[in-house]
Design brief:
By secondary structure, this protein is an alpha/beta fold. It has helices at 3-8, 17-28, 30-35, 38-45, 49-58, 64-82, 85-98, 102-114, 127-138, 150-154, 156-159, 176-185, 202-206, 229-247, and strands at residues 117-122, 144-147, 164-170, 191-196, 209-212, 219-220, 223-224. It is built from 14 helices and 7 strands. The longest helix has 19 residues, at 64-82.
Length: 248
């Protein structure tokens, strides 16, 4: 097996013969597949783009964009796992800090101070971080709340007001629920931002500002063990910057 099949081998039984054909192609032509678009991979395999999207969903992914992200980082995963965890985290954090755009941090904290209300959205493992961020702001008497329930997230376009600032928190920046909500809000007169672990995620491209610390995505034994503590660090940095402006 190649590196792709090693990662997604447990899902093979759920794939149709055509979907398996696409996955085998990607596994055997990883360098080429990394560069191809959805349409190009479909053309090479003589299948529809829907087949590839459906295959991505069966692999437990949000869609093709998340699959492409994984293909770009899969080469680094094994070497990362071979490292001592403490050394790996130390190296990742040092590298991640270098990717922070300080100017964006400052501008975003200013917009937080001016916003009438801050809404924080997070699902899954990011839910607790959304709650943490919201409660930090509550301490300063900032009008804020967090939401994580899918039906409430669907209603966001009807809930927001022009002076609101909506934050989306997502490690990958590819979470379908958040991406769809951000797309809907992009047609509203409302300020949006994201806190992610990826500078070029789908979510980050939709919102007005994407605050990120780029880290490598790592999986082990089928579990996503990508560091999420970087998201917490960004929240802390942003809150401190906001607090200093608020006190002044």
């Amino acid at each position: 097996m190649g590196k792709v099949l090693d990662q997604f081998g447990s899902s093979l039984a759920e794939l149709t013969p055509t979907e398996k054909q696409v996955l085998y192609y990607i596994d055997g032509n990883l360098d080429e597949a990394k560069k191809h678009s959805l349409t190009e991979i479909a053309k090479v395999n003589n299948v529809s783009t829907t087949t590839i999207v459906r295959m991505s969903h069966k692999l437990g992914l949000e869609g093709f964009s998340e699959l492409k992200y994984i293909l770009k980082t899969i080469e680094n995963q094994q070497s990362l796992l071979d490292d001592n965890p403490v050394d790996r985290y130390k190296e990742e954090f040092v590298s991640a800090f270098e990717t922070i755009q300080t100017s964006e941090l400052e501008k975003l904290s200013e917009r937080m101070a001016k916003a009438k209300r801050v809404i924080v959205v997070g699902v899954g493992l990011s839910k607790m971080m959304a709650e943490y961020f919201s409660k930090l702001l509550m301490q300063t008497n900032k009008q804020t709340h967090y939401t994580y329930e899918s039906h409430m997230i669907d209603l966001l376009p009807n809930m927001v007001e022009p002076n609101d600032l909506v934050f989306f928190i997502s490690s990958s920046g590819e979470t379908k629920t958040l991406v769809q909500a951000a797309e809907k809000l992009s047609y509203k007169v409302v300020d949006t931002a994201a806190i992610t672990n990826s500078s070029d995620s789908t979510l980050g491209k939709i919102v007005k500002t994407n605050l990120s610390m780029t880290v490598n995505r790592v999986k082990f034994g089928g579990y996503d063990i990508t560091a999420r503590s970087t998201l917490m660090l960004l929240i802390d940095l942003l809150f401190e910057s906001y607090l200093k402006k608020s006190v002044k």
